[in-house]
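Sample log: Type II toxin-antitoxin system HicB family antitoxin.
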Amino acid sequence: MLLYPVTLTPDSNGTFLVSFPDFPEANSVGDDKEDALTQAVDALETTLSIYFDERRPVPLPSAADAGDAVVALPALETAKVLVWNEMFAQKLRKADLARMLDVHTPQIDRLFDLGHSSKIEFVEQAAKALGKSLNISLA
């Protein structure tokens, strides 16, 4: 999983403002720290979707200092981000990946839709087509 550091700032209303050092455009608010971290995941996924829509590489998490709050991107979304970044690094387009996988482009659109529950096997196929392997571990 990708663990992104977040900054939680209490405001005068007793709520917590959420910001991300890695994504200045991602912000959220929560009623308390727990709610702020829950809202942070949604803000992160929304921001990542914007990066996909704008065809930009997704920054990997910066190192969190001891005691800093972090937001864990779920495993499937992490895999999608890593495949996206590899596709971008190889200067490939979605249409190129579709041809490599012998699928229609809408299937690739769904692959990079963070709200779509893609099958992990398809993400693994995409990684393999890019010359990479998807590794999963239990920590």
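Observation: The chain has a mean pLDDT of 93.
Observation: The first strand starts at residue 2 and ends at 10.
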